[in-house]
Structure formats: C-alpha cells, structure tokens
Design brief:
Layout: H1 3-11, E1 17-24, H2 38-46, E2 52-62, H3 63-68, H4 77-82, E3 88-97, E4 100-108, E5 112-119, E6 129-135, E7 143-149, H5 154-169, E8 177-182, H6 190-194, E9 200-201, H7 202-207, E10 224-229, E11 232-238, E12 253-258
Parallel strand pairs: 1-2, 7-8
Antiparallel strand pairs: 1-12, 2-4, 3-4, 5-6, 6-7, 8-10, 9-10, 11-12
C-alpha cells in the first residue's frame, strides 16, 4: 500500500462494524461432489454484503477439473469468488497434489496490508494452515483476521488450537482480532482452549451454544465458528435455507463484528 493510500485510510470515516461470513466451499462442489456449483456460490455470496469472507477448501488450481468442467474459472477460485466485490484477497495453500492445490482464503473490502500462512499440520496426510491477514480498516491501526481449517482427529485439533492461541497471544494486545472457519469441533472442546487467549465465540455469546452448520441440508454438528477478541458481535446467523443448503456441505455463518 502506498503512503497516499495509508493517509486516505487514516482520514476516512472510522468503521465501527464489519459484516463477516465464513464458509467451507467444498472446492466448488455440492455434497458428495455431485455437481460443480461455483458460479451459483459466487452469486449467493456476493448478494449477502459481507465486508470479509473467510473461505476454506478453496482451490488455487486444478488442471483436471479445468479440462472436465466448461464453466471452471480461468482464475483461482478465491479470485473468481472475489469478483468485483472484494478488491483484496489472500490465499494460504495447504494441500498440494499433482493436479493442483487447495487451502484457505480471505476476501476483503478493506486493504490487506500483509498476510502469512502458518503450517499447523501435525502428522499424516492432513495438511492444515492458519491464514493470518492484517487489514487496514479506517479508525483502527490494524485489524487481524485468521482463517482456520483444523484437522479431523481430536488430538490434532487440540495441538492446532494451542498453536492458534500462540498466534493470537503474539498479536498487539489492543488490536481487534477475528478468527473464523471450519474447526471440525463437533465435540465442542475449542472454547475451553481459545477462551484462555481472549477469544469469544459469536454464537455462544448470542445463543449460548455454537452454531449447527453441518451437513448444510440438515445441520446437526457444530463444525464452523466465528471468534473475536477486542470486539463484540451481534446478529449471528446460520444460512441453512436455500440456496445455501444446496451450495456446499457446510452452511455459512454470518455475524456483525462491532469494533
């Protein structure tokens, strides 16, 4: 970002709230990979007016799918989803294979000053990362966003949650922090660890329990979360009705974060 852009950010009207969405996009396919629906997903996401979108299981590229599907985008999936709505985006590549890669991404209406992807893979074939982005939001020195996709094994998740806490503890103590994504925490163990580093979950705050977000058509398990530090939340919702129920295997979560 140029010095002029930084000056414009500081002179702009302070932003007091951000609309945040998180969704595991399942690499652009419906449940059980029956249909490629990324174009419909882009339309649905763009109509919701989120300032920041946390994405999990998003392709950077996949050469075989590009040959098989006529509507496969020419750009990475996260860039395709950003379209003209989110001028800034960050991507953290977690899994790499012969035909392509996938990982986490953040789409933002505010400038992303810098980002890095922290490898929190434990062992075996589950590649996992924490995509940490620093945003320039008017009225704030920095706003930190961490996009999360944790492992399927509880012992791995416990270690990854501890690493997430270490990351949060390393951030400026007064800075607003938003952590969102797919925690795979169906046993609801994450809060006990993350509360120790000051993170508070949006749905627990407003509804007393995490959101049921999986499977999208009949949500039963609490896999997805939105946490904040040095901020409050309101209006937490699970988007489990059409078209969302037919656009991924996870129902998106949305919340307003008050800075």
């Amino acid at each position: 970002m140029s010095q002029l852009d930084q000056k414009d950010i500081h002179l702009a009207t302070p932003v007091t709230s951000l609309r945040v969405m998180t969704v595991n996009v399942h690499k652009g396919f419906t449940f059980f990979n029956r249909r490629f629906i990324l174009p419909e997903l882009r339309e649905a996401v763009s109509t919701h007016g989120a300032d920041m979108v946390f994405l999990q299981e998003v392709h950077g590229e996949h050469h075989q799918h590009a040959l098989r599907y006529g509507d496969w985008p020419d750009t990475p999936q996260y860039e395709y989803l950003a379209d003209t709505m989110w001028p800034d985006f960050a991507y953290g590549r977690n899994a790499v294979y012969p035909h392509g890669d996938h990982g986490n991404a953040l789409l933002s209406k505010f400038p992303i000053l810098r980002y890095d992807n922290r490898d929190v893979s434990v062992s075996g074939t589950e590649e996992r990362g924490l995509l940490h982005s620093v945003l320039a939001v008017p009225g704030h020195d920095e706003v930190h966003a961490v996009c999360v996709h944790l492992g399927l094994q509880e012992s791995h998740r416990r270690e990854q949650l501890e690493l997430l806490c270490e990351l949060v503890d390393s951030l400026p103590p007064e800075a607003p922090v938003i952590v969102a994504g797919d925690f795979n925490d169906w046993r609801k163990r994450a809060d006990a660890i993350l509360n120790r580093c000051g993170l508070v979950e949006a749905f627990v705050s407003s509804h007393g329990a995490p959101a049921k977000s999986f499977p999208a058509r009949w949500p039963l398990l609490c896999l997805d979360r939105i946490y904040v530090r040095n901020a409050t939340t309101r209006g937490a919702q699970v988007l489990s009705r059409r078209p969302w129920s037919h656009l991924s295997d996870h129902a998106p979560l949305v919340v307003e974060v008050c800075l």
